[in-house]
Task: structure prediction
Amino acid sequence: MSIEISNLVKIYGEQKAVDNISFQVGKGEIVGFLGPNGAGKSTTMKILTGYLGQDEGEAKVCGIPVRESPLETKKKIGYLPEANPLYPDMYVREYLDFIADVHHVADKKARIEAVIVLVGLTVESNKRLGQLSKGYKQRVGLAAALIHDPEVLILDEPTSGLDPNQIIEIRDVIKRLGKDKTVLFSSHILQEVEALCDRVVIINRGKLVADSPISRLRMEASGSGAIRVAFRETLEPAKLQALKGVEAMQAITDKEWELQTKEPDEVKKQLLELALQNNWNIVSLQSENRSLEAIFRSLTQ
Result:
């Protein structure tokens, strides 16, 4: 495994920022690392990259314990932290040249040009870092994380500050990289996670609350999903509210309703029977797949 977290604990004072979490990420996987603010995501990433030490447990990168061999693991990792550290007076190529020297990159000139093209920095590559927009600064940070061609990428909010077009471009870069690298990234943009990842790891208050493919999470949550029904006629909401198993309902229009239930099949059956009894015409009746956002909220609230 490229990333191995085993029974990891990090304590600040009386607070367990990371509370006995374990998970693994293999080569070729792009895994979304999710959680509300303060959940312990950035702390876990800093432990993985050797910027923080854990109090208990173990973190390994490519089979190497981070605590015992921090320099060796740093060679394997490309890290883009949430607070992207840049030197505003340096030029783009000058900064990447500096980072390449830190990593002892061979043929660094060619490698610098390659990552500039890869992350879409070409048009801004002759500017000082302080002159760049936040979105282009993020691209520089990503280029710096990639300069030494690492096996593992750890990206903390990699698309922060990017406009929608830039997000799609960087998303495509991460997808390409994920074919032969290991990518662990955090984001508060859950649509982005759905577009990039097959699997998510979710933590809340330092504890692991989910580690699963998104498809399986949806399947497990489908029992508490929603049904959307549309009628040709206008009807009284009390008739729908009275159905057994309906926990809540919302009017989309005066003829269309969304019903929250843990028994979708039973509620659908009752709706069909009710329509027959009252001579109503059902225009559409379908289950609504729970979004990752709805699942995230249910796990972290």
The chain has two domains: 3-219, 225-300.
